[in-house]
Amino acid sequence: MSDGVFPEGFLWGTATSSHQVEGNNTHNDWWAWEQAKKVRESSGLACEHYQRFEQDFDIAVRLSHKAHRFSIEWSRIEPQEDCWSDEALEHYVKVIQALRDRHLEPIVTLHHFTTPQWLAAQGGWVNPKSVDCFARYTQRVISVLGPQVRYWITINEPMVYVNMHYVEGVGPPGAHDLKQALRVTEHLIRAHAAAYRILHESFQEGNFHPQVSVAKHVPVFTPCRSHWPIDRWVTAYTDRIFNQAFLDALMEGCWFVPGIARLKIPEAQGTLDFLGVNFYGRQFIRWGPSPGRWFGSSCDLGHHPREVTERTAMGWDVHPASFHATLSRWARLGLALLVTENGTAMVDDHRRWSFITRHLQAMAQAIQEGARVIGYCYWSLLDNFEWAHGYGPRFGLVDVDYSTQQRRIRQSAWRYAEVCRTNRLVQEQ
Predict the structure, then answer these.
(1) What is the pLDDT at residue 1?
(2) Which range marks the domain in which residue 36 is found?
């Protein structure tokens, strides 16, 4: 046996998002999308986490967690334009206090895929107005939550959001429009920059210094046919669009993809205090006639006959070595890394733990080689509503019986708890 010891103060925990666990988020665009029968299932009551958050945080304490990432539901805070719900704001004050009372570090996400229906009716993120609306929402949230939150995620997986909602059309508004996708990308960058400034300016006179980032999904893109130059070129181009260009914008103030656009956004320069990293696996790229996709490429999460040897229950690639490569690559930005999501949907819980332990080993190796990783949030604490996939996938360390809302802690959760408790990963040789 050999032991991997993690840095002192490492933030071990899990993540959730409001629409996926709270239930009855009736004022956002995803709820309307579900009621229009655009997906197989409606989120409905979800996990009733809005009412049961203290019970769920008690479970996190039993599991020795040190942190919890969650999202605030914008459409609860502002159900109608410039009409604010004090009740909803007070609810999230109680959520933060419940975490603090249990010595769980809150990691707060301001936008996790859902947008208020009133803004969606005005064009959503295609509308330049969305930037000011998001800034106003951020200002209202920070005025209430104040210095109770150190770690802030402005936007979850911005390029996944763009691709899912404006290229592939599997989420509201169901668009297949690359021009709209580009505009939404620009507005998300500007919205992040505005929120970053607001968060920092709110605490200029005190000793409290918030840490602000995005949660960036940074997959390893791999050509399906490595011997084909066109697949290799399209893979590099995909990586430029989804990974490098967005982070360049937040580091250097310029989003640039050759042949598409150069967007100078100077206010976004230097708006990352750390980097939130979401990682699930490799994505394979094949060039071909794929209307409605970026430059005709198609992306496959796992079905590669030679390269993929293990898949999740959703068919996604399992490749811990790519997690190590991802952490090592983005550590070169010179920022601390916080793993804001990493997880798997598995029917077999033994395979879930195998996934977790191998990814923790990969993370430990990256840390030993110099990557400054400050925390790890498994996705997810609870089984939850997985967007267009409905309630089929089971990502949770905690099983949820949706008919009774009963929670059952899986064995993988207890094994992860031992890592959280000891700050040590015992590796079997």
Answers:
(1) 28
(2) 2-220+272-280+321-422
Asked, for residue 297, whether it belongs to a domain, the answer is no
Q: Using alpha carbons, select from 94, 96, 99, 115 the residue that is nearest to residue 33.
A: 115
Count structural domains, the chain: 1
In angstroms, the CA 256 to CA 189 distance is 13
In this predicted model, what pLDDT tens digit does every residue of 195-208 receive, in sequence order? 999 999 998 777 78
**pLDDT for residue 2:** 44
Residue-wise pLDDT for 139-191, tens only, equals: 999 999 989 999 999 999 999 999 999 999 999 999 999 999 999 999 999 99
Q: Is residue 95 part of a domain?
A: yes
Name every residue whose Cβ is closer than 8 Å to that of residue 367 and which is 6 or more positions away in sequence.
6, 7, 327, 373
